[in-house]
């Protein structure tokens, strides 16, 4: 399926999850982006695509989401990630980054302003031209990228099977030829910034 179609479908899925978990009808997405990365887990190399959405919630919506996350942890819908689910870098990174990977930015929507720079090799060993695609205005991207106090120390994995079972009329999007999918959520309580990630593993090699 076309990358842009996948990007949009994951964006819709993230928005639906935010609405359900925060009990908020609107979906105030700041930016979204997608990138590719090879990871090494359990003696295998995996080819992954990451579809990321970042939101700014209002106080009441954020409070509701935090309570929902705590309840979900207790019920087994959400659980703490372990090291095998790490993301944002390949094995043995030369540089670790937090809220956003330190990559060049590409524009996905031609009608939107975008920083256009040629991508070269990076600290994260990502060299594919155009592998990093972004929705959102430049000033929002820069505002979040430069917010050094925003961290996601509570990165959590969503149990996809439980979500599909418990959320009425909700079905997680799984692209064709996918080895596995992983859904992750983290948030910065003070700023009410929430990040959702869909990690799509497309290949596995020993």
Would you give an account of this structure?
The protein is built from four helices and seven strands, in the order αββαββαβαββ. The protein is globular and about 45 Å long. Residues 82-131 have low confidence and may be disordered. With 206 residues, the protein is α+β, with helices and mostly antiparallel strands. A hairpin with a 2-residue loop joins strand 1 (29-41) and strand 2. It has one domain (3-205). It starts with a helix and ends with a strand. The protein has helices at 3-22, 59-75, 138-145, 160-166; strands spanning 29-41, 44-56, 78-80, 133-135, 156-158, 180-188, 193-205. Helix content is 25%, strand content 28%. A seven-stranded antiparallel beta sheet has the order 3-5-6-7-2-1-4.
In terms of topology, how is this protein built?
Blueprint (H helix, E strand, L loop, with lengths): L2 H20 L6 E13 L2 E13 L2 H17 L2 E3 L52 E3 L2 H8 L10 E3 L1 H7 L13 E9 L4 E13 L1
Antiparallel strand pairs: 1-2, 1-4, 2-7, 3-5, 5-6, 6-7
Q: What structural category characterises the helix and strand content?
A: alpha+beta
Beta percentage is 25-35%
Q: How far is it from the N-terminal to the C-terminal residue, by CA?
A: 26 Å
Binned, the helix content reads: 25-40%
The major β-sheet equals: 7 strands, antiparallel
Structural Rg? 16 Å
Low-pLDDT stretches are: 82-131
The arrangement of helices and strands along the chain is HEEHEEHEHEE
| Coarse shape | globular
Rounded mean pLDDT score: 67
Q: Got a strand count?
A: 7
Q: What's the helix count?
A: 4
Q: How are the strands of the biggest sheet laid out side by side?
A: 3-5-6-7-2-1-4
Q: How many separate structural domains? A: 1
